[in-house]
């Protein structure tokens, strides 16, 4: 049956979110959520590096945590923080990460300035008036 075959293909596709949730990742998701929650509550910077074998639920776990943090902030009457997730396997060079961060702030590379993405970020965050106001 073509309809059943299509349903099976969709269910087994790697980009499909399982309807039952992510199995055996509750503890990891809770730890990441608590880390993010503490950063928002204390208005302090924080970053995470999540690593593991392919297909173990890293991207899905982080997506679920981002939703949980947004929901929690709304419930607490706090401004929902912006988020930035970078899948580093898609980067050709480690320094490309700075360009990805700049994209989040919709900063265009200035042809006249000839500053590297890292230098642009340093300049952006070294002056309070030019730094983003919303927590990221």
From TrEMBL:
<dbReference type="GO" id="GO:0016887">
    <property type="term" value="F:ATP hydrolysis activity"/>
</dbReference>
<dbReference type="GO" id="GO:0005634">
    <property type="term" value="C:nucleus"/>
</dbReference>
<dbReference type="GO" id="GO:0003688">
    <property type="term" value="F:DNA replication origin binding"/>
</dbReference>
<dbReference type="GO" id="GO:0033314">
    <property type="term" value="P:mitotic DNA replication checkpoint signaling"/>
</dbReference>
<protein>
    <recommendedName>
        <fullName>ORC1/DEAH AAA+ ATPase domain-containing protein</fullName>
    </recommendedName>
</protein>
<dbReference type="InterPro" id="IPR027417">
    <property type="entry name" value="P-loop_NTPase"/>
</dbReference>
<feature type="domain" description="ORC1/DEAH AAA+ ATPase">
    <location>
        <begin position="43"/>
        <end position="129"/>
    </location>
</feature>
<dbReference type="Pfam" id="PF13401">
    <property type="entry name" value="AAA_22"/>
</dbReference>
<comment type="similarity">
    <text>Belongs to the CDC6/cdc18 family.</text>
</comment>
<dbReference type="InterPro" id="IPR050311">
    <property type="entry name" value="ORC1/CDC6"/>
</dbReference>
<dbReference type="GO" id="GO:0006270">
    <property type="term" value="P:DNA replication initiation"/>
</dbReference>
<dbReference type="InterPro" id="IPR049945">
    <property type="entry name" value="AAA_22"/>
</dbReference>
């Amino acid at each position: 049956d073509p309809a059943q075959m299509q349903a099976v293909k969709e269910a087994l596709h790697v980009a499909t979110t399982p309807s039952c949730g992510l199995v055996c990742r509750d503890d990891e998701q809770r730890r990441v959520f608590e880390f993010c929650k503490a950063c928002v509550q204390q208005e302090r910077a924080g970053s995470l590096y999540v690593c593991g074998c392919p297909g173990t639920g890293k991207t899905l776990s982080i997506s679920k945590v981002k939703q949980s943090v947004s929901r929690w902030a709304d419930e607490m009457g706090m401004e929902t923080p912006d988020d930035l997730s970078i899948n580093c396997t898609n980067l050709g060079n480690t320094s490309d990460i700075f360009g990805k961060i700049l994209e989040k702030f919709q900063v265009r590379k200035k042809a006249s300035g000839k500053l590297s993405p890292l230098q642009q970020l340093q300049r952006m965050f070294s002056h309070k008036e030019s730094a983003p106001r919303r927590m990221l």
